[in-house]
Amino acid sequence: MLTSQILLWAAVIAQALLIAALARQVGILHERIAPAGALTLHQGVKIGEVATPMDLLTIDDAKLRVGGKRDGRSQLLFFASPDCSVCKSLLPVLRSAARAEADWIDVMIAGDGTKPAYRAMAADHGLDGLPIILSEALGRAFGVAKLPYAVLLDESGRIASLGLINSREHLESLFEAKERGVASLQDYLARRKEA
């Protein structure tokens, strides 16, 4: 009886170790096969459409135009919320991208909450140089349904790329899609497969 109990406990411990090792491997595999680019959701907004220019105010009451023709500069609208943990984890990435791509792009944060909440978020994450716009109409204009979401407008005010952003790679995929003239990296890979 004692021998069977010892063997059963040994089997249970061995199974627990195997399950833990398997769970670790699944986690590693999940990290390695992250999506290639920002997830484009099905909405009424299409790549290549000219965005209707909107004159808005930042949380500091500065006037800012979103969309429209610009002198050789693109605009990146990053839709975020102070309550969104994924949004907050991407703010250092956004800040870094704004610095690295400053020669061709203007980065701004958009949302529809309260000024104090967004000011606190800006202070907590060092977003002093980035304009923050609070406008529900702006989110509706670009079909934003989930956060964090980003829209890249080219120099002529056309929607170059857009999508749900969950990582640095997703954000960079918007820049890459614009550079290659495709709707998304998934679209680019599909076209290459067909050719």
Secondary structure blueprint with pairings:
Blueprint: H1 2-32, E1 54-57, E2 63-66, E3 74-79, H2 85-100, E4 105-111, H3 115-124, E5 132-134, H4 136-141, E6 149-153, E7 159-164, H5 168-180, H6 185-194
Parallel strand pairs: 3-4, 4-5
Antiparallel strand pairs: 1-2, 3-6, 6-7
CATH fold-type name of the largest domain: Glutaredoxin
Q: What percentage of residues falls in helices of 4 or more residues?
A: 40-55%
Order of helices and strands: HEEEHEHEHEEHH
| Number of strand segments | 7
Let me know the largest β-sheet: 5 strands, mixed
Mean pLDDT: 88
Q: Into which percentage range does the β-strand content fall?
A: 15-25%
Rg (C-alpha, Å): 22 Å
Strand order of the largest sheet: 5-4-3-6-7
Task: Describe, in short, the structure shown.
The protein is of the alpha/beta class and 195 residues long.
Describe the fold and architecture:
By secondary structure, the protein is an alpha/beta fold. It has 6 helices and 7 strands; from the N terminus they run αβββαβαβαββαα. It has a 5-stranded mixed beta sheet with strand order 5-4-3-6-7. It has a two-stranded antiparallel ribbon with strand order 1-2. It is elongated and about 80 Å long. The termini are far apart.
